[in-house]
Design a protein that fits this description.
1003 residues, alpha+beta, Rossmann fold, Topoisomerase I, domain 2, 7-stranded antiparallel beta sheet, 6-stranded mixed beta sheet, 34 strands, elongated
Length: 1003
Amino acid sequence: MNVLFRSLRVTIDSRFYRQVSVSMIRRTQIKKVLCVAEKNDAAKGIAEIMSNGSSRRREGYSVYNKIYEYEYHLFGQNVTVSMTSVSGHLLSLEFKAPFQKWHSCNPVLLFDAEVEKYCPENFTPIKRTLEREVRQCQALVIWTDCDREGENIGFEVIDVCKAVKPNIQVFRARFSEITPNSIRRACETLTEPDVNVSDAVDVRQELDLRIGASFTRFQTLRLQKIFPESLSDQLISYGSCQFPTLGFVVERFKAIQAFVPETFFKIKVVHEPNEEESVEFSWKRHRLFNHTACLVLYQMCMEDPMAKVISVTSKPKSKWRPLPLDTVELEKLASRKLRISAKETMKIAEKLYTQGFISYPRTETNMFPQNLNLTTLVEQQTQDNEWGNFAQRILESGGPTPRNGNKSDQAHPPIHPTKYTNSLQGNEKRLYEFIVRHFLACCSKDAQGQEVTVEIEIAEERFSASGLTIIARNYLEVYPYDKWYNKVIPLYTADTTFQPTAIEMVEGQTSPPQLLTEADLISLMEKHGIGTDATHADHIETIKSRMYVGLTADQRFLPGELGMGLVEGYNSMGYEMSKPDLRAELEADLKLVSEGRKDKASVLSYHVAKYKAVFIESVRKAKKLDEALSNYLGPAQEITEQEQGEMEIPLPVRKCPQCNRDMVLKKKKDSTRMFLSCMGYPACKAAVWFPDTVLEVSRDESICPTCHPYPVHMLKLKFKRGSLPPMMPLEFVGCIGGCDETLREVLNLRYIRGGEADSGSRAHNGSGSNQHHVPRTNSAPPSRVTPPAPGANGSRPTASLPPPRATQPPASAQGGAIVCNCGQDAILLTVRKEGPNQGRQFYKCNTGDCKFFLWADPPAEQGAPGGSRGPMTQNPQPPRPSAGFGNVPQQRQNNRGSGGDDGETMCNCNEPAVTRTVMKDGPNKGRMFHTCGKPRDQQCGFFQWANENVAPGTMPVYNVLLLFRCLGSASTTSNKPPTAKRPRTCGICHEPGHTRVTCPQGK
């Protein structure tokens, strides 16, 4: 035996053998298994079947979700099973702080705000139970419902369990009913969870959250102010499914309103051969809308009223038995035949399923699979007093022969009874009886009859009448929800004549369509792809609870004033948001995601962008919404200019160099001061602050041809009078992308860049989705960072400006790439030219388009405190970027110096500055200023007026320009590394050490 095993082992591919061996070893190590169902009733039913009624119940942390323990033969061995449950979705999707609050941001930001999955407080006990139980188990089996939502709930359970025990083995049980055969088959064919199906739910959840929250906040906040008397406390919600559903109701109502009845005319022939029989013949022309034409034909018939029998035909007639029951048909038929709403129907069906009485009620299949034993299911029903005899006749007449449809979701069979019961009451009994009778009817035979059609002629006008004789009722015996009646007509013979009892010309009017019933509405939703079979009832219930629609006495939908106004308002904007097209496209894409034929991220980004564009346009045309609603709710109240401004969506100026989201102009709270901010805040804190000297800032439609990433819009700026030199205009258009030297010098810009230290990682491009299960924390507000020195050049720092004092690791150490003004990664080069900077590394633009320059490390030496000329201990310094936006480090000092320990002004050398007085004639004569105290050839270039020792960012623009002139070399745009300062030379002999006044050659 051992020899045989060794020889067999040699013939097996080694890699395959290793995989099988590892799998077998891992499975033999499984001693305890955690099983998780979607609801407690399902867990109880499955445990009862698997344990043969011998399971031991114990408590978890949740009082509603018990734990059932028992032994079971699984994975080829006996294991201990702990069966527990969740209560639907364990995790919820929500925006990260601070976007959860309604007034935290403009609603348009919700299309890009980061989201997270978290466990609601009321489900925390369930989560704790899972975490406790999984620690003792080696395998996890997901027993949630086998549909999209169930698969997603399963992955929520997996995420929670793997966070505690990452190496847990995960399996998926596939089943359609809680019966012994189905549960045993599921245990024998455990599979892997389907991540594609779960991804489709993730996409749907995120889109519903973003679309619903943004439109709901916009509608509610605006309309509560516009119509305070009617809507002050009304939540005006929007959903991409509920709005098309509302649209169907409004469309039917408006069709009835617009209907204009037309008068028609027709000829009716009645024959009563005796007192007991009467037959009415229908005109072949049906009806005419021209009175004169009909009158002429009628008079011709009256002139020659004898009727001649043209033909008598007899043919078999069948009434087809119903198709197997899917979810949509169950909802429609329960609404029509039982007068039970779709919401209540699905609630009852779910309960019957968890009790094991029916199969899974959420299915799109209307054809029975060949491996389903229908005979056994019919046999179970033979014991009933009402339909037992009919079930027995099915078995005696050859067994069930169902009429099959053409739809299958490849997951669940049609809805059918799985176990007989007579203990139900109320609507549960009525719905169970309907499902049983429907199942027996479709397993039976069509009703059979004989139809007789008689055609007559009067004055060359044809008329006909039909009669029906039912031969075999078949399925109608058990299915009272369908009606088929005998219609007896006299016996006629061809080519015979008779005198009609009456020939009349009757008048009538066309009638408008009726208001929609719930069954009609579900049919329209299914036809146009709005929602799924599992969500139709929820969407209908939502528009009812929001008072968008109401019900008439005969249970038909009538739109309310608010619903009418919303639909008309959005339709007047040009976007038919009440039409099903937008949502139908999304539902089609979700199906492709679940099948693995489309990528989750691409579908999400596409539909977010599409709905965002619609939202932006809707906000711009919001007055049309006000006008439409004012027709129903009364005059619209005027809102203030400030409130209007808060509702408007800011236009993008440029893309953020950090996260690629839009950057927009905003106004600081409680101030008129403007700043440019990333819409990814607070995850991304990139911003540009404008000084108080800027009175107005607005986006210009012109686009900078130099700056990237394209497009970077120019800005219109208006300055305070007296803040600029006389030669400069107070209003001009410029670019703040980094290419405009003049604007960089004129504006004392405050650049703030939220880096990796703020958020832990750079925000990703596209929608801000982050769906990992994380604790909920509030994001910190953006930190203020000292602005760059006014003398910093837009292309590179100069040799006369040493690095700031603050120590910080270089950008590369933080894990962030250096980005040039083009928005691309800069390249790292080394200075080869002889000089004081030889061997130093620096960054520059990869293409050379934006003249970006940045030292990779600080200078090797700088002055020591206290005026010492000796070298000091070198601390790692951050790289010195250019003044172009997007390249400024998170923390840096300005070159106006800083305060020492005793409050004295320090220069950029970290030494006390000296105070001097302007002696030159001019407007500043006699004015005192601070400057570097070193000899002229060693000065750092520091300058600051003595009476303006103020916080960074408040320096008048005129003084900023003067400072640039004083610094001199700071305005250069050369891309070369800085060189050592050359000593002054004589103007005659060009030798150092003297001037032309004392030059020996001049004498």
